[in-house]
Write a structure and sequence with these properties.
The complex is a heterodimer of chains A (302) and B (305).
Chain A (H helix, E strand, L loop, with lengths): L13 E4 L5 H7 L6 E4 H4 L5 H12 L2 E4 L13 H14 L4 E4 L2 E4 L2 E7 L5 H18 L3 E4 L6 E2 L6 H12 L2 E5 H11 L3 H6 L6 E7 L2 E2 L4 E2 L8 H14 L4 E4 L7 H9 L1 H4 L29
Parallel strand pairs in A: 1-2, 1-13, 2-3, 3-4, 4-7, 7-9, 9-10, 10-13
Antiparallel strand pairs in A: 5-6, 11-12
Chain B lengths: L14 H12 L19 H6 L2 E2 L6 H23 L1 H7 L1 H14 L14 H7 L8 H19 L8 H5 L10 E2 L4 E5 L3 H11 L30 E8 L2 E7 L1 H12 L3 H11 L6 H14 L3 E2 L3
Classes of the chains: A alpha/beta (302), B mainly alpha (305).
Chain lengths: 302, 305
């Protein structure tokens, strides 16, 4: 539900991804934003401007870490260097939760730098769940697992994607970062009903939601994060939040990035679509006080 | 959720085998037409190999589905090298830089979770396979070194700097070893590549932030050609100051001193190297003192880990 043990009992409202083209605007204008999501790996560095910018952001805003390289489904051992640097960043940001993807991306020490789909087997689910437990024990923060968009399916699969996601998070006792756009993209690429997905996951484990835009091609859809959110995705988001309650929501816009104000306006549309029975986000799209110094202002359980 | 039942799967369908097959497919170079290669590594049909583990759907074959990932792999990684080595790309031109990048990634696939490290073995690759730099061997070598140093300087580690007074608190110069910031690189070049790269970067289009989203487009548009520099021996420090990367020209003797300190020589031994080259300069002691004051002011010296 909105504030639960998977998001450390926080309902952060509506946030956007922190991206380089917006740094100057954010630091100079200090716009009111509920929270920012950072790509962890962009800040898992030893020094320099990235950390300086992050520290300035942390003085003003709440920040949540989202990773792209933990590769929870890889069969190589967990990358200890990655985890060590990730934990150092967790301490710096005080992120209430850490998210990464239900995918793999490296094998035999070779990294593809992609979020690759897993075969939906019981063995894979057990493998991933074990790794999530190890990561959580090491990082000492709740872990949310995000469903990826995909373009391939495997003969080896023994269940649907939503059954696999449910199996993994139940086994690992982990939360879900529900990417509604990814569900839509995969549903079109793999011919399933996205509402079956939304209806059959453990809603009480959803700690955060992602929304984004995508691109349609003749025979498939690509998850490009370079457009506004499309209507079918907004409808799915409305349906999802009826099940999960008003949950911390984040707009991803990663390519052909428009102005900060345009991205933020797009994100705030989420308030209009989030109408669960127990009440959605505040009417202005903000579940937290309208105050630039929000970081210390509303961290108590909602 | 409905109860699920386990089923036995044919041998070879385990997770690691699937991941190896998938990685093999997507990390192979694209054809000239930017498609997936028709032959698998064992010479069999890629269609057959892909069909063995990937399901088709009503619009795409197993081959087509794997090809989407194959393209994204190369678009993403080549884009990263284009961004990190704009000077080398400008020197070699788009087509040759593309071929060089593919050959490099085939020889040295990424071994790090971060794309930041993707080019960390490019210099090593070029030294082993210098044909990729022909006919501009020295200029290309200088460029790749400077461009990698730029990456290190951008986000490399920084230790608390030592002030000038604290430097000499260490005691006897014959025994004192000074430590330099990890993000600093000193280079002796045959070409004024610092000026060249600055000119290239000024012409670059601004880039967006990193993300995990799929790259819809292919590799970016052609780089604009710049006039190549004439040979000129220079020494340069690539460093970070006030969170920005700078290229600072050094006199050859300054380069000697700093390189010697970096190698772990004592303060006295490092300075003697420079004195030997400037025997006739009566004021060299004062010059050297002035350099050290500048370097300390830039925060280049730090305590040992």
């Amino acid at each position: 539900m909105p504030a639960n043990r998977f998001n450390n009992f926080n309902n952060y409202g509506i946030g956007i991804g922190l991206r380089v083209p917006h740094y100057q605007h954010i630091l100079s204008r200090k716009p009111t934003v509920d929270w920012f999501e950072i790509i962890s790996e962009n800040f898992m560095v030893d020094g320099g401007r990235p950390l300086k910018v992050l520290d300035q952001i942390l003085e003003q805003y709440r920040v949540v870490q989202h990773g792209v390289a933990m590769y929870l489904g890889s069969t190589d051992g967990l990358d200890r260097t990655h985890l060590r640097k990730l934990k150092r960043l967790v301490r710096r940001t005080n992120t209430p939760w850490v998210s990464d993807h239900l995918c793999w991306g490296s094998v035999d020490g070779r990294y593809t730098h992609d979020l690759l789909p897993l075969p939906y087997t019981f063995a894979a689910a057990a493998h991933v769940a074990q790794r999530i437990r190890e990561v959580r024990d090491y990082l000492e923060v709740p872990i949310l697992v995000e469903n990826v968009s995909s373009y391939a399916e495997f003969h080896a699969s023994e269940m649907t994607e939503w059954e696999f996601l449910s199996e993994v998070v139940e086994k690992a006792d982990a939360g879900i970062l529900l990417d509604v756009n990814n569900i839509y993209v995969s549903s079109q690429n793999h011919n399933f009903n996205p509402y079956d997905y939304l209806n059959h996951i453990p809603h009480d484990r959803v700690g955060q939601i992602h929304i984004a835009g995508h691109s349609k091609f003749e025979k498939y859809i690509l998850d490009t994060h370079d457009h506004p959110v499309l209507d079918p995705v907004w409808k799915m988001y409305a349906h999802a939040t009826k099940r999960t309650g008003a949950t911390a929501t984040l707009l991803e816009w990663d390519d052909r990035i428009p102005s900060f104000d345009e991205v933020h306006r797009e994100a705030l549309k989420a308030a209009k679509f989030c109408t669960p029975a127990e009440g959605g986000f505040a009417a202005d799209g903000d579940a937290s006080p309208k105050n630039n110094d929000v970081r210390g202002a509303s961290l108590s359980p909602a | 959720m409905a109860a699920l039942t386990r089923s036995s799967k044919p041998p070879g369908q385990d997770l690691r085998a699937i991941q190896r097959a998938f990685a093999t497919g997507i990390m192979r170079p694209l054809t000239a037409e930017r498609g997936m290669q028709p032959k698998w590594t064992n010479g069999e049909s890629t269609r057959k190999a892909a069909a063995a583990f990937i399901k088709p759907n009503d619009r795409l074959s197993s081959f087509d589905r794997l090809e989407i990932y194959n393209k994204q792999y190369w678009f993403r990684l080549l884009d990263c090298l284009y961004e990190d080595f704009p000077g080398l790309r400008s020197l070699l031109g788009d087509a040759r830089f593309h071929d060089l990048s593919v050959a490099y990634l085939m020889k040295y696939p990424s071994n790090s979770y971060t794309l930041r490290d993707l080019g960390n073995r490019l210099e090593k690759f070029l030294m082993k396979e210098p044909r990729w730099m022909a006919p501009h061997h020295k200029l290309a070598r200088d460029l790749v070194r400077l461009e990698w140093a730029h990456i290190v300087a951008f986000d490399g580690e920084e230790s608390p700097p030592l002030e000038m007074d604290a430097l000499l608190d260490g005691g006897d110069p014959a025994k004192l070893r000074l430590h330099l910031q990890p993000h600093l690189t000193f280079l002796a070049c045959d070409y004024p590549v610092d000026d060249f790269i600055l000119a290239v970067r000024r012409r670059q289009e601004p880039q967006g932030g990193a993300s995990n989203a799929v790259a819809e487009r292919g590799p970016r548009r052609a780089a604009k050609k710049l006039k190549l520099p004439r040979p000129e021996k220079i020494c340069v420090a690539v460093h970070r100051h006030d969170h920005s990367v700078w290229y600072k020209r050094l006199e050859p003797e300054a380069y000697l001193v700093l390189s010697a300190l970096r190698k772990g020589l004592t303060l006295q031994a490092a300075c003697e190297r420079a004195f030997r080259r400037r025997k006739a300069d009566a004021n060299f002691g004062a010059t050297l003192q002035n350099w050290f004051a500048q370097w300390a002011a830039l925060g280049w010296f730090c305590r040992a880990e």
